[in-house]
Amino acid sequence: IMNSLLKLNKVIRSSKMVLRSMSSIKLAGVLPPIPTPFNAKEDIDFDKLQINFEVWNKHSLAGYVVIGTNGESASLTLDEKAALVTKCRQLMKPGSLLVAGAGCETTRATLATCERLVEAGADALLVLNPSFFRNHISEEALYDHYMTVAKQSPRPIILYNMPASTGYDLPVSLMARLADHPNIAGVKDSSGDVVKLATVVDAVRPGFQVLSGTGSVLHPGLQLGCVGGVCAIANVLPGPTAQLYHLHCSGDHEAAAQLQRRIIGPNGLVTRRLGVPGLKAAMELFGMYGGPCRLPLVPLSKEKRAELRAEFERNGFQPVSA
């Protein structure tokens, strides 16, 4: 009897935790997916991370995503991921949201990562779908994976659709089914497909929060019903990216559209074309720390750096560093 009572109490506490977490998690606004700063030895440089936060904290960002694709999550150990979450929690402004990437190639590893990162201070977990065996993983298997994680995760999870990295585009039908679980707060869709964003917004339950996963379609996504965006360009241009969001919220869609058009070119370079090395190089142009990536990612050539600078300048964003 005692064991049964203990199990029942655990279930009740878990249910209350899920309801409480869902009632408090708000994803609206702009969240930069921050890069992980490394030194010349490819060790994490927490001092340089502080320098970047001193810049980001000056702007009206809703929060931060750590250990995502731009954070080189695939190159980090679990201990390093937890240390990054703890440090980010210390450096960010009070009241900001901290989302941590927790997706792994197995359900068991994803759950272990969720628990560890919540202990370290994460408010929510961004869960990229397993992709190594993507040709042998059905939609039903992915549904079971996400449902298992959602049921056991100590904090809300956010679905992460990143077909450019995983080679798999999460179906809208799958997102709509998963959206019904109270511990799945939303989805970050990085497909860059405006039609898909609209379809997802239309298909999911009210209150399920859809985030644009790229700055190139932030304003169109907001107009279609997205609540915000996780935008790599916000690392480099935190002020203008946040301004775009606030222009939309204030109803000044003409100004928002003009700013959106200026952001598209630089964003395309630091995401799809040049990747994480391009993002880090762009941050250095604007007085922040980029630094090296971990191999096999390599720094940009001088020619690519010049192309990067020219693209920002062409769109009216003046670098501060040589």
UniProtKB/TrEMBL annotation:
Database matches in InterPro entries: Aldolase_TIM (IPR013785), DapA-like (IPR002220), Schiff_base-form_aldolases_AS (IPR020625)
Keyword Lyase found: yes
EC number: 4.1.3.16
Catalytic residues in the record: Y160 (proton donor/acceptor), K188 (schiff-base intermediate with substrate)
GO molecular function: (R,S)-4-hydroxy-2-oxoglutarate aldolase activity; 4-hydroxy-tetrahydrodipicolinate synthase activity
The keyword Lyase is assigned to this record: yes
GO biological process: small molecule metabolic process
Catalysed reactions, as listed in the record: (4S)-4-hydroxy-2-oxoglutarate = glyoxylate + pyruvate; (4R)-4-hydroxy-2-oxoglutarate = glyoxylate + pyruvate
Binding site for pyruvate: V230
Keywords for the protein's UniProt record, in alphabetical order: Lyase, Schiff base
Similarity comment: Belongs to the DapA family.
PANTHER family cross-referenced by the UniProt entry: 4-HYDROXY-2-OXOGLUTARATE ALDOLASE, MITOCHONDRIAL (PTHR12128:SF66), DIHYDRODIPICOLINATE SYNTHASE (PTHR12128)
Function (record text): Catalyzes the final step in the metabolic pathway of hydroxyproline.
Binding partners and assembly: Homotetramer.
Protein name (Swiss-Prot/TrEMBL): 4-hydroxy-2-oxoglutarate aldolase, mitochondrial
